[in-house]
Amino acid sequence: MADSGSLTNLRKAGNELGAKTTYQLFLEKEGVPAVRGFHIENINTVELHPWARFGGRGVYLNLDGSEGVNDCYIAEIAPRKSLDPQRHMFEELVYVISGHGATTVWQDGGKKQTFEWGEGALFSPPLNACYQHFNGAGDKPVRLLAMTNAPTVLNLYHNIDFVFNCDYRFTDRYTGEEDFFNGVAKIPGDGFHDTNFIRDVRAYELPERKDRGAGGKMLMIEMSNNVMSAHISQFPVGTYKKAHRHGAGAHVIILKGEGFSMVWKEGDDIKRYNWRAGSLMVPPERCFHQHFNVGGEPARYLALKPFSSRKFPGLRKQWGTSESVKLGGDQIEYEDESPRIRATFEEELAKRGVVSQMGNVYKAAS
Question: 72: which of 54, 66, 137, 353 is 20 to 30 A away, CA to CA?
Fold first, then answer.
């Protein structure tokens, strides 16, 4: 847990400095570097550093597209070791990059509950519950990636001691239910699953989402009664998705496939970023972005998003990511996209000998 005295002193120093946010002061106290930029080529190979609060190694990922709304971190658990117990007033979604192990969750004075996970798992420790991660292997480290809304929460309360040392129990979110992490999903419909644990997002079954283009599949995920959410998306070989835009902070982790993304704001030049399994990117707010599969297998990604819950809406603008810009939405239909988009895609396919599957899609759109 965080040290109360040192964090209180840090808050007082922040009041004197004035220019830095509480989150920035918190990062300085953490003593762990923060990787910046637009994207990460491979989350498996990001350099890690000693992290006293966690009792392991890690690094923060403060990518440009998060725009101070949320952040990510990567943490490593050494073989046969565990990280130190944690509790905090911000939400987080945890993705297991590599390895296998277990997490124990409990409320103060309550019974401890442990669930096991492996590579590709996704879960969320309930808000302000205590939790601890363990490595279940004797020969290999575990690498975890977590997306949190810590920047928003820390800057909102501007009291680090409160965020890490509040003892309030959110019993409307978690009361120690024995089946809380059993992986069974509630399915309200409309491509939306409410669950607290997914064993492997790389193999999770997805429904079709024709409105997002080219035979794609997508599933919306909500966990642990958070205001954050996630979605898993997949699209076939030789296809690409429609361009769309939304708010800041969507961390897109490539799970399978090879391709590239184009990113631009209206009136600005288009930027291109190549990706493969293990890449991470965060499109900036109101920037159109479009994903292209030029590899030999279906491309799949996991998007971890802040403030986008369907159960608890209202914190952020609702974007029309499946509605045409011509109708006031935030999606560009195939027939309205720049000719350069299609030409670039076909050039990349030709380099790899991959056949385009967009012919019938173009005809249907015309």
Answer: 137
Q: How many CA atoms lie within 13 A of 149 on its CB side?
A: 22
Task: Provide the sign of the torsion angle of the four alpha carbons 229, 224, 85, 102, taken in this order.
Answer: negative
Helix (H, G, I), strand (E, B) or coil at 146: strand
Give tens-digit pLDDT for 175-207: 999 999 999 999 887 788 999 999 999 999 999
The amino acid occupying position 135 is N
The per-residue DSSP string of 239-307 comes to -BPPEE---S--EEEEEE-EEEEEEE-TTSPPEEEEEETT-EE-PPTT-EEEEEE-SSS-EEEEEEESS
Beta strands in 19-155 (DSSP E): 34-35, 39-40, 49-51, 56-61, 71-77, 92-98, 101-106, 113-117, 122-123, 130-135, 142-148
Indicate the burial class of 254 (C-beta count within 10 angstroms; 0-12, 13-18, 19 or more): buried
Alpha carbons 249 and 68: distance in angstroms, whole number: 8
Residue position matching structure tokens 């209206």: 266
- Backbone CA torsion sign across 180, 182, 184, 185: positive
Residue 245 tokens read as: 């835009």
Per-residue pLDDT band for 311 (boundaries 50, 70, 90) equals: confident
